[in-house]
């Protein structure tokens, strides 16, 4: 059939349509527009699905944390009950001791009276025999008989009273001893339940001794998970709204053709820009949920500074919001009035962004690492940056990646510090185990178990006491030594383990530290070179200060980083363009 304009369509071998008044180039643009729009819509839909999955996972995390909160409440209740039982046991023992002392006094009096009565009775018996033999007694013997009889008469009531007192004290002592035995049995049950709850909560010995700090960390983790859930839900809400709008426009897009579709083709890049803007707005909404700006002007100024900082440091704009959100959740820069100091917030953000580049982790991960060091481990910004320098340097000198050392510290750094290690000693111990071949999971568990086992003190189990005794240690003294010199104490324990009989070494390590970390601890004991190197560096700040900045500077010179900077700048301009209405 002829074209209305008299030109027949012809399909060439190359797949191009010729003979249509719409040029091939314009038709190609039209198809590209459709493809571009489809990719944008598909991407938005996939992003929504990812957020739904993330929300489900975060909800599970929140529920797990809430279960831990409940278990922690039970743990604290048991601790209070155990403390009350301990007090009652001490009182029962003191009362039993007092009754025992009174019993001994009464029994001694009873024996003394009985002895004197027996002596007087012996005199009477002898005189009675004399009377039977001679038929009479001398005057002196008669007086002696009368005195003996009088003595028995006077001592018998006192003897009876002493006997009654002794019996009473005996009954009280038996009663109190029984109460003490019942309390001890009850306390054994309470200790066993505490141990089970501690295992469920993954409490180390040092955690149990610093329950308030553990509770605080758990509460912060719960709050953090809830904030993350809110951010994810906000992003999903924003994406769903955008998807709904796109779907409503889909029918109109289907009706478009020719020049109209070509116009849409020209607008396809704007749709892609709009998605970036949507993502950024959702991310910044998450920031506003956890950061209390002084006023709208402070919020706008901080937002501009964040975007500029992301461009300068070569991280994505949403990456910067992830860092700032992590800082806000950790309370970084929050003042007494509840408002946030934006300067402190952005100082943190710049440090975290550089950490992300130096450690080769995402901006969000870097923000989480630094925020955890600040909040859970109680470090100042300067201390956290020194730890970052140390972690970077030790990873350069050992077969341990900085991000793995950081991950172990995020999980158990506070536990190790509670046991007496410094922050850098804790990181050094983690690095030594990772360099020795331990996985991140094993290293974290080993750090927790080492910290807990060496600070068990009075709560050490019978098997732990026996194992420690085999290498010459007492758990109570060991716990005290850990607070004075944790690193030195650990070395002493490792040296004694190394000297243990080879056939006993594995069993001793397993009993003290746990079967799951036997391999990691055995490697530390067999070869302490890595640990000594790590701890020596921890004691010499000149060996690591400025390490992370140098790493960042080196990576900043690479082509990949320069491209990232350009991309961040374009992203900043794009978001601003869409926000301004495309003008």
UniProtKB/TrEMBL annotation:
Residues 307-514 form the Phage tail tape measure protein domain. Keywords: Coiled coil, Viral release from host cell. Residues 164-189 are annotated as: Disordered. It holds the Pfam family PhageMin_Tail. InterPro entries: Phage_tape_meas. Residues 166-189 have a biased composition (Basic and acidic residues). Residues 48-130, 211-249 form a coiled coil. PANTHER family: FELS-2 PROPHAGE PROTEIN (PTHR37813:SF1). NCBIfam families: tape_meas_TP901 (TIGR01760). This is Phage tail tape measure protein. The lineage of its organism: Bacteria, Pseudomonadati, Pseudomonadota, Gammaproteobacteria, Enterobacterales.
